[in-house]
Amino acid sequence: MDEDDISILCTSNNIDEINNILQQFLKSNENVFTFPSLCENNRRLLLWTALFQHLQNKSLEAVHALCLATIRVLSRDKLDLEALLCEKWITVLIERAGYYNIMSAGDESAISIDVAQKEVIVEALKCLCNLAFNSEVARALCAHTNIAQVLVSRVRLYRDIPFKDDIMLFDMKLLFILTALRHDIKTKIKDELHGMDYLISCINEIIIEASPNITEINPSDGIDMVESAHCIFHDYQQAIICEILKAQFNLIIHSGSEEAINEVEEAMFLKLMVVLTTLLHVGTSNESKLVELKSNIANLLTSVPLLFYPYLTPQLNTGEICQYAYEGRNMDALHSLVLLFQNKLSNTTNTKNQYESLSPILTVMVKCARSCRAQRKYLRQVVLPPLRDVSSPPEKGTTLRNQLCRLLTTPVTSVRDLVAEFLFVLCKEKVGRMVKYTGFGNAAGHLAQKGLLSGGRTGQYSSSSDDSDTEEYLEAQPHIDPVVGCTRPPRVDPFEGMSEEQKEYEAMKLVNLFDKMVTDGVMKPARIGPDGRPQAVDHVLELREQPPNRPQS
What predicted TM-score, i.e. pTM, was given to this entire model? Predict the structure, then answer.
């Protein structure tokens, strides 16, 4: 935008002139994110000031949407953004977003919004999202207003708002940004304004709208405890739900600790778990959107305390039918998470995105296995079914077990530790069983961390064993090499045909090579100490003083 155009915007109130200039700017810059030309002659400040002056002029309402669209595009550029903003401008955007209308209308009043107002509201929300994301000053100014109250107030009134879909989406985007980057806003929404309860109710409303089997539910009948209707979300519903889940994650991110939970939090988590279980049953328009929805559910579950995980698999009532039942429990939601787990494992092909992609769902899998005996046993039969073919190493193949065993040696230590913990819990924390399914080489690092290289067992589990060996496994068992976790073909004796002198010569070569590696610091000999962890020795002869311990079941 040149100086002449900015000059016209600053001085003219002609709607046609303003309209033509702004439309041309938007057409030319819809995909532009920086505007270096505005650094000259104070153009940036003049342009922003002109746009906000027009927004405050009621006679120019016809171009308010264009003014806001221009601010939205300009707000992508972080240059000098902090210096430009003031509380007056943030207040104008909040007003144009319709928040003050919500406050003045009251909770019981129907909200009247026409198409033109909807366009202005959505553009103002987009501006607020950009500014809150790109500027700490903007977030601080938002915190000084009553934006927390008005956001929560509108969440409570969505049922009465026309054209609510786009408005809900950008409300939730703004809520997510503010709760992620402003601790004071997050605390106020969670503790003072009971934001989690209203967001849970909001999800329920969307589920009811998308459920063909539910026409109306009276709040007194338990609107916040809606059972699964196996509904299919439209794309806009899926997008709104994902933003709500991300905002909820921000609100409870520290709640997954072992701190005591009060009655209010307990009631909230109980309602949340019912909603999340319902969401794990829904369908979407395509697989990628379903994976996105489930991924956000898994992210949120990482912050849910272990105490509430059994509610993912509720007890089946008499006559109740589900697709996946196990030990009298409905496993549909857990199976849905397993499908997400398989998808993440199959589509994570390199170490660059392993942590971001796998850590949340692995954390959920570990917590499921620890929280409930039935969930652990169900996961075990899916991940570690009875062994039959043991001719290949555990890390070779395409099964869940194979993929997880490969991750036991990944350089991404956080993922490696989560995988090892998951498999260890599925094995009831028994060393021998872990070695059986993964091979000692793959499990050694985790066992060393826990001080279990000499065998043993941790955790509280039932004494009954559910590990029934197949006939194929029992037949192959004497030939299995526990280090690699599979059978090995018979080897040719390397000393066959050698004289005693040649054998001694080869042995001394090996001793000298080993001594050189120790001397050069390439490796250091160790033995298993009393604590079950590797303990360095000063000389290899010390290894003869104590026979090596072997893992015991």
Answer: 0.86
